[in-house]
């Protein structure tokens, strides 16, 4: 027989794939919303859910979330195949907001960066991380709250396997949800601290008012006996 002919996907199979993708996205969104409902004041559970769902839905070998602190990216959480050597290296020598790292570019340009093969990227300067992590294809999206970059959500594949436009859309959506979760947790913490501060001030004012009320009361005369004022008997 001659060469086998590759069978093109039918309209029905493409439609089914679109339905499957839509269902996966809906389930992921549901899980994140449930996490918001259970732990809306704590970002930990929400961010864990986002990182895990991002890796699974985009068929990535690993998904990682970095938080931006004083122009340095600190590793916050991971899901998937991430070596201990990579974690140690990126913790001891974190990425900065600079074009030598892909996440630095994502923060500077405030847009998603898609690198098909990091070894062929002329700007990439973190070969130490690539050697320890073993990744080849990268997709990284800034976590934006307004115009402020609060972190970066990234995914990688250990083989050269470019991410699709669908993957870009999904990662950007996850990054936006992560930024909201962080800000909501910060606002809740700030509100709790402010509430505790106000409660303390109210107690102080009540104590001062009570003290002033007692001080304003008229003094009660006291009786004293002396030898000259005593009435003699007999």
Describe the protein in words.
This protein is of the alpha+beta class and 234 residues long. The protein has one domain: Beta-Lactamase, CATH 3.30.450. It is 51% helix and 17% strand. It contains six helices and five strands, in the order H-H-E-E-H-H-E-H-E-E-H. Strands 2-1-5-4-3 form a five-stranded antiparallel sheet, sandwiched between helices. It is elongated.
**N-to-C order of helices and strands:** HHEEHHEHEEH
Lateral strand order in the biggest sheet:
2-1-5-4-3
Structural class: alpha+beta
- The CATH topology label is Beta-Lactamase
Percentage of residues in strands: 15-25%
Assign the CATH architecture.
2-Layer Sandwich
Helical fraction equals 40-55%
Shape: elongated
> What's the alpha carbon Rg, rounded to whole Å?
32 Å
Number of domains: 1
- Main sheet attributes: strand count, strand direction, barrel closure: 5 strands, antiparallel
Count of individual beta strands: 5
Distance between the termini: 149 Å
- Would you tell me the overall average pLDDT? 79
User: Low-confidence stretches at least 5 residues in length (pLDDT < 50)?
Assistant: 1-6
List keywords for this structure.
elongated, five-stranded antiparallel sheet, 51% helix, disordered N terminus, Beta-Lactamase, 17% strand, 6 helices
Brief overview:
With 234 residues, this protein is an alpha+beta fold. It has a single domain, classed as Beta-Lactamase. It contains 6 helices and 5 strands.
How would the blueprint of this fold be written?
Elements: H1 11-39, H2 43-57, E1 62-69, E2 72-80, H3 84-92, H4 102-109, E3 113-115, H5 127-133, E4 137-145, E5 148-157, H6 165-216
Antiparallel strand pairs: 1-2, 1-5, 3-4, 4-5
Helix pairs in contact: 1-2, 2-6, 3-5
